[in-house]
Structure formats: C-alpha cells, structure tokens
UniProtKB/TrEMBL annotation:
Signal peptide: none
Keyword Nucleus included in the entry's annotation: no
Keyword Nucleotide-binding in record: no
InterPro entries attached to this UniProt entry: 4Fe4S_Fe-S-bd, 4Fe4S_Fe_S_CS, NADH_quinone_OxRdtase_chainI
Protein's name according to its UniProt entry: NADH-quinone oxidoreductase subunit I
Protein keywords: 4Fe-4S, Iron, Iron-sulfur, Metal-binding
Pfam families: Fer4_7 (PF12838)
GO cellular-component term (any): membrane
UniProt superkingdom: Bacteria
Molecular functions per Gene Ontology: 4 iron, 4 sulfur cluster binding; metal ion binding; oxidoreductase activity, acting on NAD(P)H
PROSITE patterns documented for this protein: 4FE4S_FER_1, 4FE4S_FER_2
Source organism phylogeny: Bacteria, Bacillati, Bacillota, Negativicutes, Selenomonadales
Length: 156
C-alpha cells in the first residue's frame, strides 16, 4: 500500500516524541551515580573514625596520609587526614579495610582540576565544616547553642 512506510516512520516519531526523555541537560542536570560507583573523593565521617590507620595501611599507592594524637584518656584521635586523589587507583581497598565504615565515596564525577596540588583533599577539614554546619542547623532547630564539637576530632 502506498504510504505504508511513511506511516510506520511517523509511528516511531510520535512514540519517541511522547516518550520519557533519556538525555540529561548537563551541566544543569546531573546523573545520580549507583550505590557501587567508586569515584570522586573520599568522604570521611569523623564520628565513626577511630583513627586506627587501617585505610592508610591497605592503600597500595600511599594515597592516604594520616597523623594521629592521643588524648589524656589515651584515646587516639585524628590530627590530619589527607587524600591525594591524583594517585588513587579507585581499588576500594581503603573503604573495605575500614572497620567502622567511616569512609565512603562522595560519588562526584566532576573532579577535573586546573592545578595538580588541588587534587590533594583535606578530608578532615571538609568533615569538620560539614559537622559545624550540621550542629548549627541543629542549634537553629532546637533554639539552643552547644559549643562542644562532636565526632572523633581532637581540637587544637
Ligand atoms: S581506592 Fe585504593 S588507591 Fe585509592 S585511596 Fe583507597 S586504597 Fe588507595
Ligand atoms: S577511616 Fe576507618 S580505617 Fe581509616 S583511620 Fe578511620 S576508622 Fe581507621
């Protein structure tokens, strides 16, 4: 029949036109990465970290640098936690070695940097900022002010 091919083609066109769009308008829209995605930077949870150093020992490429200190009660605390993301193999050994699940991937896939030293991430400073924000938000919500910093961080 004459025009049958045209109708078939139009059917596909209309079906696609009203179908849910698969294309994301990057960078305005971002992909949500799956749970098992290894990438971005290490996200440190200071409330869970016991400063044992197992993540550092598990790393085959010496990507993680940790310094620790003891408090008066002989409890170990983190003094610094630096992750050199430019050297990372994303093997996940560090995450698997952590006994308290204190580190995870932030799943940010936009990690290009202009300068090499910007690839060194001060995870402890980032965690402290996040914690301070959370505490301020909690204070606002409860209307009280608590000046004690939570988590396993030894203050200067
Ligand atoms: S993913 Fe592998 S290479 Fe990267 S910091 Fe962890 S252990 Fe080291
Ligand atoms: S992140 Fe985990 S493995 Fe690394 S020092 Fe903290 S508790 Fe230990």
């Amino acid at each position: 029949m004459l025009g049958k091919g045209l109708l078939k083609g139009m059917r596909v066109t209309f079906k696609t036109f009203f179908h849910k769009k698969e294309t994301l308008q990057y960078p305005e829209e971002k992909l949500t990465m799956p749970a098992r995605f290894r990438g971005g930077e290490l996200d440190l949870n200071t409330e869970k970290c016991i400063a044992c150093g197992l993540c550092k020992m598990a790393c085959p490429n010496h990507v993680i640098e940790i310094t620790t200190a003891m408090d008066d009660a002989k409890k170990r605390h983190l003094k610094s936690y630096v992750y050199h993301s430019g050297l990372c193999l994303y093997c996940n050994f560090c995450v698997e070695a952590c006994p308290t699940k204190a580190i995870s991937w932030d799943k940010n896939y936009e990690n290009s940097r202009y300068f090499r030293d910007e690839l060194d991430v001060d995870c402890l400073a980032i965690a402290k900022q996040k914690l301070t924000k959370t505490i301020s938000a909690d204070d606002k919500a409860s209307g009280e002010k608590d000046n004690t910093l939570k988590g396993g961080i030894l203050d200067e």
